[in-house]
Task: structure prediction
Amino acid sequence: MFFDRPASGERAVLVHLNLASEDEREDPREFEELVLSAGGDPVSFVMGQRQAPHPRTFVGKGKLQDILAEVQQHEAEIVMFNHALSPSQERNLERELKCRVLDRTGLILDIFAQRARTHEGKLQVELAQLQHASTRLVRGWTHLERQKGGIGLRGPGETQLETDRRLLRARIKSITGRLQKVRRQRDQGRRSRQRAEVPTIALVGYTNAGKSTLFNRLTTAEVYVADQLFATLDPTLRRLQLDEVGAVVLADTVGFIAHLPHKLVEAFKATLEETVSADLLLHVIDATAESREDNMAQVQAVLEEIGAGGIPQLQVFNKLDLLEQEPRIDYDASGRPERVWLSAATGAGCDLLLTAITSLVGEDMIEQELQLEPEQGRLRAALYQLGAVSAEQYGADGVSHLSVRLPRADWNRLLGQEAGPVA
Result:
């Protein structure tokens, strides 16, 4: 990975400013959770207010001295800002503070680098890191601006910095090509599911809302679960059997966060496409979070950005065991399930969730009583293969009387294939 991380937690000074020029402010508590999730050891939190960021150092001279005093007092190894810093601001701050400086985007990238487990996830993280680093190459390396010279070093006349940039561009191009191949493979898998008429249900939600715990509860999978931000990075797909509907595919996806860096959204397009192509989104919400409404709005904003805003949603309010409330389903005016209240940790209410999913996915289901002649055995076998037959009786004349329930798309496909009459 691009970042070198020490084995133990680094002592970190955290910086957060309330800027009058910002419409949406970052949450200081969430920032501290991000630092802890990255393995940092917050030793001090410097807060302040400004009308607008200082163009050179983001903070003013007085606040810069306060940060320097905290760094020296606690012997901090890194200063982290709960804001996006420009490359020049990072360089100037490092020069003044005599230690490493990391902004919010760099911190999230580092967490993603720790969490990536699959080959695809590692490629996506490396791409985002390289794109972020390409603007920061000159940081602390002014000697690289000189052209190479000396015995064995005379070459094409480009500076070391230009060489590094060229190598970065080549690596970015290589990773982009490999991710496009992964995207084509994912598209192939999605098309196969669509041809088989298997509905896809994607779990989405704010980071640490309990998506993976719920995923494991529903599918008996063993996805990594931890009480930390971005515990899940790589998407996981599992088949889930629903009564009266049949098989569906459940997808666990990466959690969203306020002001998710655009580079990450771009790099994780292949992963997020599982969400875009879903038939139903389960929006998992931490019912105990104080900023619950804001988190829901942030998730909706990311869904709109990736083109998934119009997909039907079922809200799942999780961690009900901490509120000591009873599980329930809330219905809208038309009688459709709108919200399910449950606890993924204890399993309470998960049966209600399956009922609600069955109701929503099964809205386009056909229920029919069929009479099939003996020569229509091929159609009968196809109905059994789809798991559509709920009851069957034989008449004295050899005619089969079937009660069937199946998706409308399967019904239309079978009718198109069947030459004889279906009563």
Summary: The longest strand covers residues 41-50.
